[in-house]
Amino acid sequence: MNRLLVIEDGNEYAEFARLFLAAHFHIVVAQRAADALACLRAQPVDVLLIDLRFDRAVEADLVGDVNATAHRLFAGDRERALRHLQDQQGVLILAELRAAGFGQRAVFIHEFLPRRMENLRRLYGPVHALPTFDCAALRRALEEED
Amino acid sequence: MFRSDIRRAASALAHDVGKYVARTARNVPDGAWTPELASMLLRDLYDLRGEHALHAFLRLAPAATSPLAAFPEWTTAHDLLRELDAMEPALRALEAPALESAAHLALRVEVALGELALRARIGAPGRRRKGKLP
To answer: How does pLDDT run across A16-50, given as a tens digit for each residue?
Structure first.
């Protein structure tokens, strides 16, 4: 049975996966980048399901430097920088995983604009996105060959 | 409020409310409500990341202060969420017609908030105004 690593700051994706995908995947869960990397180094994982927004994560758990982001993008506004990092955390985590050599297919449940999707694929290889929690479509996205 | 903040708020509504409200509703096979599915629907509506979906909606886009409240899709979603809130006793009693009705309404909330996010990317409430936000 394929192994699915769910990466999210809550438990909604994992709960959904356990109810609708457990017959097809062995499900493991990580709630921040460091845990995801540890999981990937400890066991084989076939596919990644990643939440995009980590608005419940604390600053210490986020990938990205709030001060540097504030300086670079938000005229020094740390609050907006923190929100930005939380909003984009799933993609930032994916970048960390790719940098560490993990190239598994990654699936988001988010409606990315087409141009953003192209960029994500160009940068990170096999990346897919679904706009909704649709278990049949999600299963197809997780199982398709790239 | 910055335009990017308005877009962010609309995107957060679509993500944190619309997507999760419809999480179970979209996946119930032909009205076959198992206890697990009914329980997850209740969490989607009344324990959505720790709060009622209606409360999450109003926290992210308050009626009195959010520019998003000027959009018709905001009103549609708000009315649907209020209706869903009023259904809580029937849903907690696991009444099958109420579960079916709630699933239908939840999917409409997701659609309305998806349209709101799209409109916030484009601009005006009700009509396009060269990218201007309210």
So the answer is: 999 999 999 999 999 999 999 999 999 999 999 99
Contact residues for B49 (Cβ-Cβ < 8 A; gap 6+): A10, A12, A56, B16, B20, B56
Residues 85-114 on B with a CB inside 8 Å of A are 110, 114
A-chain residues near B43 (CB < 8 A) = 15
Query: For B118, what's the count of Cα atoms within 13 Å in the CB-facing half-sphere?
Result: 14
Contact call for A132 and B26, based on CB within 8 A: yes
Domain ranges of chain A: 56-102
Q: What is the pTM of this model?
A: 0.88
pLDDT tens digits for range A37-90: 999 999 999 999 999 999 899 999 999 999 999 999 999 999 999 999 999 999
Chain B CA closest to residue A52: B15
Hey, are the CB atoms on B117 and A111 less than 8 Å from each other? yes
